[in-house]
Amino acid sequence: MTSRKLLSEAKLWLVAIPVLLWTLIPIYHIFLFSISTKDSAFSGRLWPKQPTLHNFVTVFNQDHFYLHHFWSQIWNSLWIAVATGVITLAIATCAAFAISRLKVRGGRTVMNAALFTYFIPAAFLAVPMYKAMGTYGLLNSRWSLVLAMVTIASPYAIWVLKQASDKLPWELDEAARIDGATPAQLFRLVYLPLMVPSLVAIFTYALLLAWNEYLYAFLLLSHENTIPLAVGLGHFLSSDDSPWELLMATALIYGLPPAAIYYAFRRYMVGGLTSGAVKS
Amino acid sequence: MASVSFSQIQKSFGKTPVLHGISLDIADGEFMVLVGPSGCGKSTLLRMLAGLEDITAGSIAIDGRVVNELDSKDRDIAMVFQSYALYPHMTVRENMGFSLRLREEKRNLIEERVAAAAKILNLGPYLDRYPRELSGGQRQRVAMGRAIVRDPKVFLFDEPLSNLDAKLRVAMRSEIKALHQRLKTTTVYVTHDQVEAMTMADRIAVMNEGRIEQLGRPLELYDRPANLFVAQFIGSPAMNVFDGAVKGGAVEALGARWPASFSKSGGLEGQRVKYGVRPEHLEPASSGIAAEIVVVEPMGAETELVVKVGDTSLIVMTRGRSTAGPGDRIFLAPDPAHAHLFDAASGLRI
Amino acid sequence: MSAIAIPHPPLAPKRGLSTWQTWGLILLAPYVLVFLVFVLYPVSYGLWLARHPESYKTLFEDPVFFTTVINTIFFLLVAVNLKFILALYLSGFFVHERRWIRWLSVIFIIPWAVPAIPTVYSIRFMLNPEWGVVNSLLFRWFQIDGPNWLTDPQLAMAMAMLVHIWKALPFWTLILMAGRLAIPKELYEAASVDGASAWQKFKYVTWPSMRTLYVTSTLLSLIWTLGDFNSVYLLTGGQPADKTHVLATLGIRYIRLDQLDHAMATIVVALPFVLPMVYFMMKRLSGDEQKTS
Predict the structure, then answer these.
(1) CATH of B4-227 given 3.30.1060.10, 3.40.47.10, 3.40.50.300, 3.40.50.2300
(2) Are B69 and B49 a contacting pair, CB within 8 Å?
């Protein structure tokens, strides 16, 4: 390697190392505490003297006041995330097909309405949504969070799916019509199979959005049987002597699935989710 | 098998009219080619027949039955698209059998029909491949196979060869023609390529700006173009056309006298005309109209010369080889029997 | 032209188009329902709740509100711009074609992919003045007592911005990266041949192609950052003494106090800024559509 090349390579590392530290320190901090005992947790070491999995055992056994509902909370999180993913996918796929392929009258208006929802800051929509869920009598039902998350996730889902649909050749629909396909058959036999990559991306997007959501969860759900893990974690800070090592262990368990799912479907996510954004 | 009849078809996109009352009858088993420059409305006309576009006014009948209000699938037609429009997620077999599957035909009937079509088109070895694994020509054949399997009343082709390279296009041209001779299914074929039109059609409808300029057999159009547009559109290289005036039984143009044979009606003395003559009817001779050679393009069997008469470039096609070079002076002797005269104002044949 | 007289028996009209339109409407209906029930009705009702001038009067008289507005403005201006300058710079770093940089970009995405709670709590914990790792290390290495990161309102706001940037930076870097990758390589090669320096390449090639994307993204991020509840709430909870609220957390605080009309009023106050930007963004995306279709 010439010295000039070496220099430019060194410049890259000069950026890379701070980026790596900046990204990983808060995450490593979680990990560090989750494998430390309560006593050694505050020693300021970069690796505990005696790493332990005891914190996880405590969490799984629900052996602490804050953890009494751990499994039920995880179940709620999962239930809400999957329900949001499925419903968002169904609603958004149908809408995108109607707008993009069937060119339904009023489709443009609906798309604009969806985009409007997409751009409104989520925390702003939360206030009226909270009130409305109360009116509908859905507060404290897991459905309230599912429906709220579907409301938040579908606009972007429709937008991305519409963009992907628009790229399918129009002649395919015409060929199918001439071949004798009804709209339902076109949808099922031609459209859905061709859209699979985008559908995977959208399902994952909605799933992660719902699993990760905190604000709506803690606004809409407060009954201990319905709260998801995110809200359960929030409860840890209600007193001053929080068991931080348990909080961090639980947080790690909560944070791992979305990270894993994201990396498993990254191939679909990155292309699918940034395409819409870059166009603008 | 069926006849197709367009009667007074009009089409507007928004307020823009694109077809101005087209009437055209296609006989049972006929191979009809719609040809014209892009934007002339030929594809729109075909798509209206396919049921992919609304009909603004007029009516379309297949086998005597008006199909205006009929959905595509109920018109009993099959269409081959320019982009082939094969379903990417289906194998060749599934692509070809799709229409029958939608009709809920029996499995073995589908198998049988697909196999028969595959045999005709030599697609047997590719039945389990996906479209992305096929070459352009193979995809083209699958698209045709998909049409054959249905055994429709009418085949529609929308510029099916324009995505192929030149050599393949010629091969597919004869394949489609052979197929038609074998199946005798009424065919409507849209192209912008006049060579395709000439070589394949029973009859050609030359379209321009939403109207049919001329309808007839290929050589009829070539020999007796009804107007200037058809004259210049049909034939390659294109007909030489220039301005002139009738004078004493001939046409005075480019500072020379061009022989012409007038029908009994046309050719008033002093009338402004367009004089047209095809390159192969402008052979060099020992005497006649003086011209200067600008470019010589030998093509083997014949030689194309670009010559100048006055300031106007003309194309001359001679059989065999030519020893002439740029700058040489030659004489042109146009054959009056092959001279075409058009009225300068209306463009109509005299 | 042959004029064969073909009888045209009229058929029972069967509107093909309208079956397809009907299907379109049926398929569109679920989302329309969701929009009406969970967006249009709640928002209309909320605006109706916020119609009383008294709500605004009490709101403006609340000292917390004034602090919050200042905080929000600072948060938006500083956090969004800092984030985008970093994202623009890092997008240039991540487009280098090296295997290890691809790996780094995979790691870099983590903050965006994982939920907010664990990481924000982790940072909150690190910043604890008594036993957080930051002050521990400051003391061990430099023998100084670190500041009260989260109990000094100004420092706490700065930390909230840091959290926001930590979480949102990867996404916007990714977007700007895609923008950079869309620039034809030939332009850079031509610039190199013409003897352009790295800065000149940025100025004459990169920036002109990225400007629109950069501005659009910044606007979008501005709207979304206004709605960033987590970064502030999970870090400071608005404390100390409600001095670190932004509009998003203040609205929620009023809900917790059961003052829904105040909560709505808080949001309505921001609408004059939000709606023009939303309108602009919608126009952008719809305009794009017309070009592509």
Answers:
(1) 3.40.50.300
(2) no
